[in-house]
Design a protein that fits this description.
21% strand; globular; Purple Acid Phosphatase, chain A, domain 2; binds manganese (II) ion; 16 strands; six-stranded mixed β-sheet; 376 residues; alpha/beta
Length: 376
Amino acid sequence: MTTLDPKYLEGIRRGLDAAFGRAPELPLDPARDRVVVFSDHHKGTGDPADDFRRCEHAYTAALGWYLEAGYRLCVLGDAEELWEEHPGPVIERYRDVLALEAAFATRGGLHRFFGNHDDLWGAKRQVAKHLAPVFPGLEVLEGLRLRVERPGRPAATVFLVHGHQGTADSDRWGWASRLFVRHVWRPLQRRTGFSATTPARDYALRAKHDRAMYEWARTQAGGLVLVAGHTHRPVFGHCTPDPPPTRPIGELEAALATAVAAGDRARAADVRAELEYARTSVRRPEEVLTVAPPCYFNTGCCSFPDGDLTGLEIADGEIRLVRWPANLRELCVAGQGVDAHKRILATEDLGKVLDLVADPTPAVAAATEQEIRAAG
Ligand SMILES: [Mn+2]
């Protein structure tokens, strides 16, 4: 693993320290409270540059479920894409989605945070003007500390923050970036269908940024769990997704040769599809970050190009990584409608996570980029 640029790390450390210092604190009872965290929707105006457009179905299905299940909703920043859009048309386009978010305020609870792409919500006047009609009395947060009391042990903190804090384009140049995006990048993106270079799009920058956030969390005294978004890549302890369900490449090559020799074109075509998929997966493996101790979790995002979204839950004494699919069929049981258990990708006992993070001398402390690929 290459060493992390100390200057970059120092910038992130200062940014997160400051946000942590400013953040209010609320109690969290893991046995009773249920919290769901979604981030990085990048809601636009419904045109091809709108990254949330494909995720609207999955998101509203998820909100409906969490609303009835008694969850508190945390919207962790970059919910609206205000680098590319003015707020009015975005709110108009997604009025029903925002109303569904707002419904949590009088049910399980609602916290809204600002990110870099919607740092306009850091200004109270803008919130009053644009969001208050949908979210009466809303106070948009930068960060929030959830204090978990632990009998016989020091209390632990789960710190929620978008995660752009301390980066050059957000804290120092936010205003100039916004003008650049609105007047230069936006017209270009509309013509080409391209999106901006951020940790969400640039893999090297994302890996660097994830590691910097992990390092900050790991070096906080007394056991802190950082929950962030911003990079658009889920991070959940040691969990990695399953490799593609293809057979080993050697076996597929042999199967293809056999089918061709037998003149079985239909069979050869099926095998060839699997073989090329496996070859591509080896060439372009999925890159996943695993961390130990589990002091840094990332929600992933609500703007995946395939219309799926991911989020984190803290509920029933567990922390979970969940996925809500664009295609509701993936959550359905034949003839019985939605079975929400299928949303869960990974789950961990919250007490165990807090124990691992509180240990001042962990056996393993590492953030590791893993490549998930088909078998050769
Ligand atoms: Mn962001």
